[in-house]
Amino acid sequence: MQLTDKLIMSAIRVAEEAGRAILGVYDGPINVTVKEDASPLTQADQAAHGIICDALSQLTPQWPVVSEESDDAAKALRLTADCYWLVDPLDGTKEFIRRNGEFTVNLALIHHSRPVLGIVHVPVQRLTYWGGLGLGSWRRSDQGQQAIKVSPPLPGQVLKVVGSRSHLTAETQVYLAGLGEYELVSVGSSLKFCLLAEGRAHLYPRLGPTCEWDTAAAQAVVEGAGGHVETLEGEPLRYGKSEILNPWFVART
Ligand SMILES: Nc1ncnc2c1ncn2[C@@H]1O[C@H](COP(=O)(O)O)[C@@H](OP(=O)(O)O)[C@H]1O
Ligand SMILES: [Mg+2]
Predict the structure, then answer these.
(1) What does the pLDDT look like over 140-157, one tens digit per residue?
(2) For residues 65 and 60, what is the distance between their CA atoms, to the nearest angstrom?
């Protein structure tokens, strides 16, 4: 499978277009409904989902699109397709509803169970991260574009840890208590991975539930930046598992 710059740039434009639709909702009244799994859904999740599914289906008709907001038949494609887009149109819906800016648009290309390309767009910051193993990782904002790399803690430096703002579990707190000295920054959505990928955090332990679409794009960005996203057994997170839930994991430099 060939990932050309043209394809990557086109997919980035799709994420950014979805981001503009999300901001259109963010600036007005937000209608919140509750899904079967009790998680919130807004008209912004649905608008972004529609834009992304339509645009990616046109861009790469050979690869199915599986989104958090897809129906069950489309979601099941992740169990059989060799190569597919895995999308979270609006990660951090709770942060979106709170209007704290910590939400992202996430497009991952999965090939043979691995995220080979990830795009994470942060609408409020007009900021996009992308990358993958063998591609490197990049960030682009109004200030310009640059390659990004993870930055392991320097000797004597306090460990910078990122954790969920809305879903920090007791198990994660027990893990943190075993770390010695650390500084915890709470952030919503897949932004946590991006802070690690660009060297602003050292560790993101997630001993709690996430779904495959929450992690795939940002895992590719971390891996392209030289970092790792691993289960507690030290295996890279994989996709197309029989369960949509990921095992607990740690993202690290
Ligand atoms: N009990 C649970 N089961 C499955 N996924 C959960 C969950 N609690 C949180 N998540 C996932 O965590 C994501 C938010 O991550 P964070 O807590 O790091 O901001 C949510 O994404 P959405 O906002 O897209 O629903 C959701 O998918
Ligand atoms: Mg999500």
Answers:
(1) 999 999 999 999 999 999
(2) 9
